[in-house]
Amino acid sequence: MGRLKNKIAVITGGARGLGAEIAKTFHKEKAKVIICDILYEEAKTFSKKINATAIKLDVSDSKNVALVFNKINNLFKKVDILVNNAGINGFEQRQDIIDKRNEINKAQIEEFSKNKKIETHFDVTVNMTDEDWFKMLDVHLSGTFFCTREVLKIMNKFNSGSIINMGSVLGTTGGPSSPHYSAAKGGILGYTRALARELSSRNIRVNAIAPGYIKTNMTNHLGFVREIIKNQTPMKKFGDAEDIAWAAVYLASEEAKFMTGQTISPNGGFVMNQ
Ligand SMILES: NC(=O)c1ccc[n+]([C@@H]2O[C@H](COP(=O)([O-])OP(=O)(O)OC[C@H]3O[C@@H](n4cnc5c(N)ncnc54)[C@H](O)[C@@H]3O)[C@@H](O)[C@H]2O)c1
């Protein structure tokens, strides 16, 4: 308790899932938490439970990001920790895509076990619209850049801070039906390393967390693929949001004072040697 005492932390996408768990755990560790989310009502309701401040933010809108960080600066005068966590999986409100993807997965498994030959194909890239591609990159990659640029206008004044970017194991392994998500997450990991080098002279540490499969809304859509993923995971299960939150506490804390440019990956062994 108290690892983050007197620290001011901004968490994007903090209304739900991993962001909410990180917010809750930071609060337990005595940080003052600011939850920024596109789902403002949800952010407000949740914030009340942990005495946090909720602010409406769309991370993919650079003007909105600038306004919000300006407001944060006016209200708090300082930010010690930024967690760039907001994210989408591209299947929001698209049950049709989820069903189709599950069908393709099933068909491929059946074809391979019967004929050792796969004749059903994902064909995600060939059918992807510019809109879907850019939306994914805008939220994850540009969102991370926009929030980082604005928070640095505050952190640079103090020459200290910790920035934590949310990657994914899929940024390393790739995912057969989400090339845009893997591209965005791989980009975030590279961006993290570049930033860590750039900002080390300012004593601002930058690290990433690359979660494996964790139980949140984002992984609800997996259907029967869930069992396949569990089988491919040495620990044979999905992680809990708290597994990610504790990694965030560590990276945000003074205990991680020699950590920068690193990726921590709580993933049950799904990927080793990130
Ligand atoms: N759950 C997993 O298994 C898993 C694995 C690897 C990486 N991740 C990453 O972790 C992060 C959190 O995922 P989660 O599982 O908690 O998902 P989630 O869907 O439960 O929560 C995502 C949050 O981000 C917010 N958000 C979405 N678009 C936004 C925008 N434009 N501006 C501001 N907020 C926005 C949502 O409103 C929501 O509160 C994401 O970056 C995700 O890619 C999750």
Structure in words:
The structure is a single chain. This protein is of the alpha/beta class and 274 residues long. It has a single domain, classed as NAD(P)-binding Rossmann-like Domain (Rossmann fold). 50% of the residues lie in helices and 12% in strands. The chain is built from 10 helices and 7 strands. The chain has a 7-stranded parallel beta sheet, sandwiched between helices. The longest helix is centred in the middle third of the chain and has 29 residues. The two termini are 29 Å apart. Bound molecules: nicotinamide-adenine-dinucleotide.
C-alpha termini separation: 29 Å
The rounded Rg comes to 19 Å
**Overall pLDDT level:** 96
Globular, elongated, flat, extended or rod-shaped: what is the shape?
globular
pLDDT below 50 for ≥5 consecutive residues: which ranges? none
Are any ligands bound, and if so which?
Answer: nicotinamide-adenine-dinucleotide
Main β-sheet description: 7 strands, parallel
Q: State the order of secondary-structure elements, H for helix, E for strand.
A: EHEHEHEHHHEHHEHHE
Tally of alpha and pi helices? 10
Structural class computed from helices and strand pairing? alpha/beta
How is the CATH topology named?
Answer: Rossmann fold
Strand arrangement, major sheet:
3-2-1-4-5-6-7
Give me some keywords for this one:
single chain, 274 residues, alpha/beta, Rossmann fold, 7-stranded parallel β-sheet, 10 helices, 7 strands, 12% strand, binds nicotinamide-adenine-dinucleotide
